[in-house]
Amino acid sequence: MSKDKAQQQKGHWQAVALSGDVGRKPQRVLFEGTPVVLFRAGGKVNALFDRCPHRLVELSTGKVVGGDIECPYHGWRFDGEGRCTAIPGHVGKLPHYRVRRYHAIERDGVVFVSAGTPEGEPYLHCMQGQDVIVRRVRSSTQSTVIDAAENILDATHTHFTHKGLLRGLSARRHAVRVEVTGGEGWVEACYTGEERQQGLISRLLEGERTKTVGRFRYPGIAELEYWGARGLVLATTFHLRQADERTVEGVGWLIGPRQSGLGHLKALAFKPLFTIALEQDRRVLKSASDNARHAPQALPTIGPLDFLRRDIAAIIDGKMPPAAAEPRKHQIEL
Ligand code: FES
Ligand SMILES: [Fe+2]
Hints:
This protein has about 325 residues and is α+β, with helices and mostly antiparallel strands. The chain has helices at about 5-10, 145-155, 160, 200-205, 260-290, 310-315, 320-325; strands at about 15-20, 25-30, 35-40, 45-50, 65, 70, 75-80, 85, 100-105, 110-115, 130-140, 175-185, 185-190, 210-215, 220-230, 230-245, 245-255, 330-334.
């Protein structure tokens, strides 16, 4: 990672867990290769380096006592700021010890952590501020952020990886226009001209589709919007992060418009189907990740339909995506 990039990322909030995951018990998450313990005290979520400074035991295997986290080995306690507040058996003034603290906040049912001092609020999802129904999901995939983000945004794998679910069983394709635009920290592909999709998910949930938008945002956010004649039909925003070298963790929102009772049912039906699609993607991404270790010098080919790959790579690297200077138009069969 370049220095610029490391600097830039420090000021960012990253989604690390669902609020519901952080209950009475401390929770360990991997954040940029570092274990972080999340614990709730006085309703607030705190985040500390998950390693007791004494004998390096995982604090997350301890418990929360009176708002502090207590190490299970000798019972040292640390407050939400990471300050040591108790050394059982010690008489007299407490020495100053501390464990590294991370900024943490909760927004819309999701816990965000930052390695620096971020300004402003975290970005949540593409329908933020609108009257929508949301479901939240968490995922863990053996992959890299760029491969996982590209997978979410890639329309061409659905015929194969998700045959029958997102696409029909027939091999019929339609002429589709794709417009790729971008700017600082984002790139998007807008697909128009698709007819109604024949896959199970589409038949269940959609009417006429007018456009599909796939967007990537810095540092690892992939979102999809499906638009129909009467507005938004479905959307998802996934926050991805490299938990460790081989694992991408994601926290995502599934978003549906709030409408009649039926709208609510549709949103409920969507989640299990979505879970199946996610599992299908996890399988191919794991296969690719395992296989990448063989002949690692041979890099993956960027094919003519991989519209966003170079732009995503540039954004992750803290650079302007090529689409910012030169928007592109493609004609494909989808
Ligand atoms: S290792 Fe944590 S208190 Fe000793
Ligand atoms: Fe997929």
